Amino acid sequence: MIAAIILAAGESKRMNDSPKANLLIRGKTFLTAIVEVMHSAGINRIYVVLGKDAESIKGKNPNLGVTYVINKEYQKGQLSSIQAVLEVIPKTIDSLIIHLVDHPLINVSTVQALIKARRAEKAPIVIPTYCKKRGHPVLFGSEVFKQLMEAPMDVGARAVVRDNRDVLYEIETEDAGIVVNINTPEDYARWCNKNT
Fold it and tell me: Is the pTM of this model over 0.90?
């Protein structure tokens, strides 16, 4: 079984403390848009990790059909959120597609390509690229779950990618959304104007 994790526990400091999960693009919140992509790609088990703004995000994103996981140690960074999910997922999950809530413009076809590559290549990590630049989401197989649990907090999942660079698999996509990171009001104004 393949599940997805959407990381939305950050403090959104560069977005003037407005939760990025609640920002609107194409008439939907970032979180809703991403969840819909995951569902459309055939992923039925989705974990959304929340931290500081948990109640606000839940209130603005009702009826998504996801499992919320509260990361009380969200200030430690993204890896702590991944680990919070790894502690609660069933053993039947073979792969996790990990995505950041500030990348709301991804395509369904990209997620489907990750799943297809995982099944065909059996690679422990599958990373999408756009114009040879790596982006998100990234698929991690169960073979590296233990490494994710043991990775240094200050390096995060990048340490696991680095340690498996000889066996990971990259797929080139035509999806510019995998490298669009909306972190600041300037980013938001630029991409919201393009995608309203």
Answer: yes
